[in-house]
Amino acid sequence: MGYPARSQPLLAAPGPGLLDLGHPDLRDAADPRPQPPSDAGSRQAARATHPLPLGRHRHLLHRRHVRGQQQRLRRRPHASLRRRRPAAAQIRYPRRTDRPRPHPRTVGRTQLPSFDGARRTGDDLHQSDRRRPPRRRGPGHRRAPHPLPDEGAETPIPTGHAGTAAARRGRQLIEKHFVVRDVPGQCHGSTLCQVAGSFVVAWFQGAHEGAANSRIWLSVRAGGEWTAPRVVSGDLAPCWNPVLHRQESGTLRLFFKVGETISRWRTFHTTSVDVGRTWSTPHPLAPDPPGGRGPVRTPPVRLPSGRLLAGASTETWAATPRWDCFVDISDDDGRSWRRTDDIAIDHDTFPGAGIIQPALWRTGMGQIRLLARSTAGRLVSSRSDDDGETWSAGVLTDVSNNNSGISVCTRDGTVYLAHNPTSGDWASRAPLLLSASTDDGATWEPWVTLEESRDHAGDETYQPADSGVTTTGANEFSYPCLVRTRDGLAVTYTWQRRGIALALLTLSNRSNR
Questions:
Q1: pLDDT (tens digit, 9 = 90+) per residue, 274-287?
Q2: Is there a domain that residue 195 lies in?
Q3: Could you report the per-residue pLDDT of 234-257, keeping only the tens digit for each?
Q4: What number of CA atoms fall less than 13 Å from residue 511's CA on the CB side?
Q5: Residue 45 neighbours by CB under 8 Å, 6+ apart
Q6: Which of 20, 79, 303, 443 could form a disulfide with 307 if both were Cys (CB 3.0 to 4.6 A apart)?
Q7: Which structural domain, as residue segments, surrounds residue 218?
C-alpha cells in the first residue's frame, strides 16, 4: 500500500537531467518566466560552458521557502559582490594553546617567559592549561570555604568567632583580621584611613573607658603586616574617640578628645607626613570652652568646593542629661573650624537625653544629610541645602538604634550604613550590620552581617556616666568606622572591648547578604 498521490506537485515536471546539480541553467528551468537570450560572449554563456562541480552550483541556496505551493529560490550575490570585513575588523578566536599564559598566582613560583606567539605543546604548556581529571569526593563530602589568603602576620578572625562572612560573589569572602587582640584592659572607638595603599588604624585603650591611663594607640598596615601599636597622644589623658582624616596635601591628621569627663572634653589634633610613622606634638583644635569641637566619631566629609563638614556633639551630664549635635565647618582643610547651630529637637518631648555623634554624607544632587545616634531607639535625620550652613530640624527615622555609634559612607551612588540593628536606650550592641540605600537614605536594605550576637548575650551590661560607660564588653561589636577604599569598603569596629577588628569588602560582594 503506497502513499496517496499529491493533487498538485510542488514543482513543475522537470525535463531530463534537470535535477543534476551540475546542470548549467537550473534557474531557467525552475522559473517559468521567459528569459532573455544569452549572447555568446556574455557571463551567463561562459558559465554554461563551465558547469560547477556536483554540489557547488552557483544557484544552490542555503534556505528554501515554500509559498503558494511553488518553491522559490533566492539567489546569493556573487562572491565578488559580497561585502567583506576589513582585516582589522575580523575576529580571530585563538586556540587554547595559543592564548597567553596566565600569571603565576603562587608565591615562589618561577615567572614564565612572555608569550612569543608560538604554539605550545607538551611539557611547554603552563600547568593551568592542562586538563585535570575531576577530584573524586567521598560520600558526605562538603567543599571547604575559600577564605582570602592571609597576606600578613596579623591574626585572621575565624569565621566561627567573627560573625558571618555573608557577602559572596565569585567565591569571594570578606577578609577580616584583628588589628590588635587581647589587649591589657579595654580598647574602643577605632578610626580608619587609607593612605598611599596603607591602612592606618587608631583607637583608645586603657584600663577602662575614661581611665587615667587611657591613651590613643595607632598601628599601620603596610606590606601586609601591622606595625607594633604605639601611643601617639603623648602624655595627654584620659583620651577618647580618635578620628583620622587625610588632607588634600596628603598629610594625615588625627583628632581626639581629652578630659576626665565627657562634658569637659577638649579636642586635640596631631599630624603625620609619613603615612603615620611619626606624629607632631598634639595641640588644641579650638580655644572654645570645654565640650568638644571638630569630628567626634566619623571622618569629615569633603565637598567639591574643598569645604570640610564634621559631625560634632556635646553631652551635658547633670540631673537631667542633655545631648545635642551640630556640624563643624572648615574652609582651610581642617586648620580652623566654625560651628553651626545645634540640630533642633524638642527636648521636652524627645525620649531620653537627645542626639549625638552625627554621620554625614553628600547626595548626588548636592544635598548634605546626616544620621545621628539617639536615646529614642531610632536614628535621627537632618539635611542641609546650603553646604552645611543651616540644617533642618531633626526627625526620627525608621532605622533602629541602640544609642551607640554609627558610620556612613557613599560609593557609586549607594549609601552604606554600619550599625547595630537593635532598638532601645543602651540596648544590645550586637549584631553588627552593614545596610545599603540607593535612594539617599530614604530606605535601607540589610546587606552584610559582620558580627552575630553570641550565646553570652545576657552578660552584656552598660552603665553610662559622665566618666564613661562601664561594661565588660561581652557580646559587644560596636563603634564602626566605615570608609571607602580603592577596592571597595573597609570598616573597623570594637570586638568585645578586647580587640579592634578590620573587615575589607569588595563591591562585587554587593547583592548578597
A1: 999 999 999 999 98
A2: yes
A3: 999 999 999 999 999 999 999 999
A4: 5
A5: 38, 39
A6: 303
A7: 186-293
